Amino acid sequence: MDSRTVILAAGGLAAVAAAMFLWRAIGRMSDNEEVPPAKASVREGTVNGAGSAAAKGPARKYPPGEYSAGEGPAEAEAASRPGDDEFLAARRRMVEEQLAARDIHDPRVLDAMLRVPRHRFVPEAIAAEAYDDHPLSIGHGQTISQPYIVALMTQLAAPQPESRALDVGTGSGYQAAVLAELCREVHSIEILEPLAAEAAERLKRLGYRNVTVRTGDGYRGWPEKAPFDLIIVAAAPDHVPQPLIDQLASGGRLVIPVGDARQELLLIEKGRDGTVRRESVAPVMFVPMTGEAMRKGSERRIGR
After folding, report:
1. What percent of the chain has pLDDT over 90?
2. Which of 66, 104, 198, 199 is surrounded by the most beta carbons within 10 Å?
3. Are 244 and 269 in contact (CB under 8 A)?
């Protein structure tokens, strides 16, 4: 799933192509133009095409040496492969122009986005597009989200070095890898067995030893591994699954898209006293959560 960004329109892949063309057109704005606020059209796996709250002023620059890129588990193995140097430059541009120029300001999140070799999480045939400002197909009818939405959801979840994270919707494993750079341990669930197996092997090959992947229905979370300091969900149910709230640790955060035709990205926080606070961050569009979430959604609609 990996922030499932397949557009749910009657046109299927044609709709994806059309939306990606529009997204590239938006991405051609000059560096001096202010990123538009979150009022534009909604694309799946994106937040209104530009960001929930546009950063004002010029993009912050990240000169060589400011990040610890090349020293993390992802780069340790990747650095020996031909062609990765050019991708490092592409990652730097991604961080500067797509993330820091908008509203991604957490230095640890920016560092993680630079460290993780996104091109290793997409098919080799489209690796050259890995750092572009749009989603990409990863096979099995699924996609990897644009870099911005991954960074935004990660920033909202506020991972810490000792955090235990749950990633619902592994997809290619990219979100899990970003979290692995920031957390003590990451548990990731994918409902499609082929994707789960491929992601687990990819993460192992890249040196991520603090990620565990399993095949399963993420609606129920992973109770055996709970509680979690943060949970990030990459597909949209029409309601917030209670098991995920129950599995949040005291002070924990759940970041999840919710809705049918109209979806919103929610930040849900569990207080130290057990109270739950919900905040709507931005309109988004993700593929629907399947499995139990879809069954319960149908039951809820029939019962109205």
Report:
1. 63
2. 199
3. no
